[in-house]
UniProtKB/TrEMBL annotation:
<dbReference type="InterPro" id="IPR000725">
    <property type="entry name" value="Olfact_rcpt"/>
</dbReference>
<feature type="transmembrane region" description="Helical">
    <location>
        <begin position="97"/>
        <end position="115"/>
    </location>
</feature>
<keyword id="KW-0472">Membrane</keyword>
<feature type="transmembrane region" description="Helical">
    <location>
        <begin position="192"/>
        <end position="220"/>
    </location>
</feature>
<keyword id="KW-0325">Glycoprotein</keyword>
<keyword id="KW-1133">Transmembrane helix</keyword>
<dbReference type="InterPro" id="IPR017452">
    <property type="entry name" value="GPCR_Rhodpsn_7TM"/>
</dbReference>
<protein>
    <recommendedName>
        <fullName>G-protein coupled receptors family 1 profile domain-containing protein</fullName>
    </recommendedName>
</protein>
<dbReference type="GO" id="GO:0004930">
    <property type="term" value="F:G protein-coupled receptor activity"/>
</dbReference>
<dbReference type="GO" id="GO:0005886">
    <property type="term" value="C:plasma membrane"/>
</dbReference>
<dbReference type="GO" id="GO:0004984">
    <property type="term" value="F:olfactory receptor activity"/>
</dbReference>
<keyword id="KW-0297">G-protein coupled receptor</keyword>
<feature type="transmembrane region" description="Helical">
    <location>
        <begin position="55"/>
        <end position="77"/>
    </location>
</feature>
<feature type="transmembrane region" description="Helical">
    <location>
        <begin position="135"/>
        <end position="159"/>
    </location>
</feature>
<keyword id="KW-0552">Olfaction</keyword>
<feature type="transmembrane region" description="Helical">
    <location>
        <begin position="267"/>
        <end position="287"/>
    </location>
</feature>
<keyword id="KW-1003">Cell membrane</keyword>
Length: 310
């Protein structure tokens, strides 16, 4: 990468009239995400009735979503208010690495949650044996390690490319497409390698989730109790909603064919999956769950009770 030391994040400069409104909306969304995810983690930790594999993975997903928004959103907010939107090469590489680690971890955690749902419905009598604490930790660890390995490979491929002396990234954080488009030695082979790594996480985990859903659906349809079918479908529908939102936006950005005019669309879609998706996850998974709502009310009630009064 001879001569390159910084990137210029063009990002929201494409929308000069909407930057103030964007800052307000993204800031409040960011705060809401942090409060919601932290509340979920605290509620699960304090309520022993929620110490189950399902809520263990939900806690992990909330933590991962919190880290994801902390990697991207603060820098986005600074750039919305700043005249200088440059980012150093080490900072850019670190941000990209962390974002893809957490993004891959989210995909694999959603797959682990699908397996958990399938096990609970397929083998309810053996569920506690099949989903022990050790197995849950192993699945969580495997998700994290796989995300690190895949993300490291992606970053090494990208930042071994040669860029121009002055590189303007048409994005607010510089994802794969916006960065590699600036390289003059980006070959078809490297493009296929990056596509393979992205597809391994996105498509691989999505196929696993869909297969789990098909098996779950076939089992649920054979349940004799209408109430049992309703409860099973209700639980899985929340999970499937988050899956569709998460994979729909990510797949649109990373797996669809690119053209010279796609950067603006990609950036708008990226706002969706970096801000809207983490905002919807707590709502879908928690606020429609009776036990979680009770636990959250207790947590928020304690916060209000012990908050200083001026």
């Amino acid at each position: 990468m001879p001569g390159l030391s910084t990137f210029l994040l063009w990002g929201f400069s494409s929308f000069p009239d909407g930057q103030d409104l964007s800052f307000v909306m993204i800031f409040f969304s960011h705060v809401t995400i942090l409060v919601a995810d932290v509340s979920i983690m605290v509620a699960i930790k304090l309520n022993h009735n929620l110490h189950t594999p399902t809520y263990f993975f939900l806690c992990g997903l909330s933590f991962s979503e919190t880290c994801t928004t902390m990697v991207i959103t603060p820098r986005m907010l600074v750039d919305l208010l700043s005249e200088s939107k440059t980012i150093s090469l080490p900072e850019r590489a670190t941000q990209m690495f962390l974002f893809f680690v957490l993004g891959a971890n989210n995909c694999l955690l959603l797959a682990a949650m699908s397996y958990d749902h399938y096990t609970a419905i397929h083998s309810p009598l053996h569920y506690t044996i099949l989903m022990t604490q050790k197995i849950c930790f192993q699945l969580m660890t495997a998700s994290c390690v796989t995300g690190i390995v895949v993300s490291l490979c992606i970053v090494l491929v990208i930042f071994n490319l040669s860029f121009c002396d002055s590189s303007t990234v048409k994005h607010f954080f510089g994802d794969i497409t916006s960065v590699v488009s600036l390289a003059w030695d980006y070959t078809f082979f490297q493009k296929m390698v990056l596509l393979a790594f992205s597809a391994f996480v996105l498509v691989g985990s999505f196929i696993f989730i869909m297969i789990s859903c098909v098996f779950i659906g076939s089992i649920v349809m054979r349940l004799p109790s209408a109430q049992g079918r309703y409860e099973a479908f209700s639980t899985c529908s929340f999970h499937l909603t988050v899956v569709c939102i998460h994979y729909g936006f990510a797949g649109f950005v990373y797996l669809r064919p690119k053209d010279s005019d796609s950067f603006r669309e990609d950036m708008l879609m990226a706002v969706t999956y970096t801000v809207l998706t983490p905002l919807l996850n707590p709502i879908v998974y928690s606020l429609r769950n009776k036990e979680m709502k009770i636990s959250l009310k207790k947590v928020l009630g304690n916060i209000c009770r012990f908050s200083p009064r001026w």
